[in-house]
Amino acid sequence: MIVACERCHARYHYDEARFEGKPSKRLRCSRCRAIFEVVNTRAFEVQPTLQRQPPDETMVRRSGTRPARPAPRAERPPATLALPPNVKLSLAVIAGPDAGRMFVIEKPRVVLGREDVDVVLEDPEVSRQHAAIEVAGDRVTLVDLGSANGTLVGDAPIEEATLENQGEFSIGGSTLMLIVTAAG
What are phi and psi of 69, to 5 degrees? Predict the structure, then answer.
């Protein structure tokens, strides 16, 4: 489910299983640090007791309520990825714990996350290996790597999306912007 901070309106993916049967939870916004309450809408549903749902081969369920995230897709073959000549690509963190930091993209596939990645973000809501930026000439693609909190472009969760110059995206509680400039 997607929840929003009542003060700054930052949006987050929240796993409904984390309610643990409680009618609501209090969360702290990683952007403005405000505390807000999230209501568990499923706590008020009447569950059928004797009905059993046959397993659906296209969707595996995890701990009850939410479909499992799709498995991370295979990496593109390295031969199809290449940095464009005469162009410099950078990522600017414009919101979140690392706001103000800049990262230069120096190879055609850059992984973003908390640990063992090319771009390390100090954001507890970012997965260890959260998303990747893949560059194939003039095309820059943002790919979610099966992260826990998802990857958003605008307000929409994505598995894969093309980024343009000054395109913004959110991972965890951080918002980043792709910056394309002439090399020189």
Answer: -70, 150
